[in-house]
Amino acid sequence: MIREKQIQVIAAINSGSSSLKFGLFCHNDPLSILCTGKVSGIGTANCSLAVENASEQNELSSCAVSAESAEEAATFLIEWLKHRDKQYQFEGIGHRVVHGGLLYQEPVLIDDRLMNELNRIRSLAPLHLPDSISIINVFRTAFPGISQLAHFDTAFHNSMPFEAKHYAIPRHFWTEGVVRYGFHGISCEYVYGKLTEQDHHPGSGKIIIAHLGGGSSITALIEGRSVETSMGFSPTGGVMMNTRAGDIDPGMLIYLLKERNMNADELEHMFNMESGIKAVAASELPMEKLIEKRNVDSKALQAIQMYSYHVRKQIGALAAAMGGLDIVVFTGGVGERSPEIRQLICSGLEFLGIELDSKLNHSSAATISDSTSAVKVYIIPTNEELAIAQHVKEYLESH
Questions:
Q1: Is 42 helix (H, G, I), strand (E, B) or coil?
Q2: How far apart are the first and last CA of the chain?
Q3: What is the residue-level pLDDT of the chain in tens, covering all 399 positions?
Q4: 64 - beta bridge partners?
Q5: How many CA atoms lie within 13 A of 161 on its CB side?
Q6: Are the C-beta atoms of 6 and 25 separated by less than 8 Å?
Q7: DSSP string across 290-357
Q8: Could you give the C-alpha distances from 51 to 21, 79, 182, 198, 237, in angstroms and in order?
Q9: pTM over cut 0.85
Q10: Is the bond leading into 30 cis (omega within 30 degrees of zero)?
Q11: Can you point out the beta strands (E) in the chain?
Q12: For the chain, what percentages of helix, strand and coil (3-state, to nearest 5) are there?
């Protein structure tokens, strides 16, 4: 029996708070995608795996998954990967890790020292790091001889200046890690790279990347370097999100602790899981469904308006921080697919030079700004998995 030639594969693992995404890439130059997939609804009765195969005319397949935890989801995914195509040979694996703390500012090889540090700082990102640690442990056990790298969302924002990086609190807290980190850095890195291909002169420009999805953040770049971002110490801060409150007055915490006798766990759950769009809309419907209901549901309309206002305010603030604005990029699920949200955000920003072309925006074209707009506005779909895989490829080739 003739065995098929093994394909050298790089895997990118992207864990979220309730999902596990992955991408398989053929290790050639440039990387070519084999398939992408997502285990969603982890811990619910609706947990499932959906896979899109690039080699089969983007054929989409799905199956039910029984996974009560991120660890169980990772175990299922590994079994699926190992038995899917026997001709695959894994060369390297990259993991998205939301938080790198003060120590890790670039992709690093995963070893025991790194895992000890991630366990030490797990309280900095309680919604993400514990699951990431569990998933990495499962993959290290399953693939003990394969190089695995960690890629940190926080690393991209290490270039922020002192005044943007620190809170006005006693300095000793800074050395303990209580600073502004910023997140969605892997997405920003990928989007900026695609922007330089699309716009040949963005490097010296003042750019805002609006990553709008289940989690949302707005980042300001000058010459490709992050100088300010809406998220700070944790992914809970910044603009309001699907279930996260965004920025709040610290006096509210004091009030809720003292007057309502709430404890830390209750506050964490409320601000991360029961706030944001979900709280204002009094609904767990996704954004596209809220838009459909906005003319008959006042709470849905209020949630949409509040979310757009938060993002619009951040864009204005970041433009002020940079002293101007040349380019705005929308990315993330909502940013890429919701013309209504993009229109609401940009309405009122004409004073910055933003003018949308309504037809281009409605069709979600690559460029949606009007030809007379002083600020160019783009839609660039993000691909964190490809960015992760590219770093793994670079590591493998340099070692």
A1: coil
A2: 35
A3: 444 567 899 999 998 777 899 999 999 889 999 999 999 999 889 999 999 987 655 566 889 999 999 999 999 999 988 876 557 889 999 999 999 999 998 999 999 999 999 999 998 888 889 999 999 999 999 999 999 999 999 999 999 999 999 999 999 999 999 999 999 999 999 999 999 998 867 767 999 999 999 999 999 999 999 999 999 999 999 999 999 999 999 999 999 999 999 999 999 999 999 999 999 999 999 999 999 999 999 999 999 999 999 999 999 999 999 999 999 999 999 999 999 999 999 999 999 999 999 999 999 999 999 999 999 999 999 999 999 999 999 999 998
A4: 48
A5: 7
A6: no
A7: HHHHTTT-HHHHHHHHHHHHHHHHHHHHHHHHHTS-SEEEEEHHHHHH-HHHHHHHHTT-GGGT--B-
A8: 10, 14, 30, 28, 32
A9: yes
A10: yes
A11: 7-15, 19-26, 32-40, 48-53, 59-64, 88-97, 108-109, 147-152, 206-212, 216-222, 225-229, 327-331, 376-379
A12: 40, 20, 35
Dist. CA 88–CA 5, nearest whole Å: 9
Per-residue tokens: 80: 């699926």
Cβ partners under 8 Å of residue 340, min gap 6: 291, 304
Give strand pairing partners of 123. none
* Cα separation, 100 vs 111, whole angstroms: 14
Tokens linked to 149: 């790298």
Nearest to 396 by CA among 1, 10, 58: 10
Strands 376-379 and 327-331, how do they pair?
A: parallel
For residue 328, list its beta bridge partners: 208, 377
Domains and CATH numbers, the chain: 7-152 (3.30.420.40), 200-379 (3.30.420.40)
Laid out side by side, the sheet with 32-40 consists of 59-64, 48-53, 32-40, 19-26, 7-15, 88-97, 147-152, 108-109
- DSSP string covering 143-159, please? -TTSEEEEEETTGGGGG
Tokens (6 digits) for 132: 């990431």
* 85: exposed, middle or buried (Cβ count in 10 Å: 0-12, 13-18, 19+): middle
Residue numbers annotated as active site:
153
Token pair listed for 79 = 């079994």
Q: Which residues pair with 92 in a beta bridge?
A: 10, 147
User: At 173, which amino acid appears?
Assistant: F
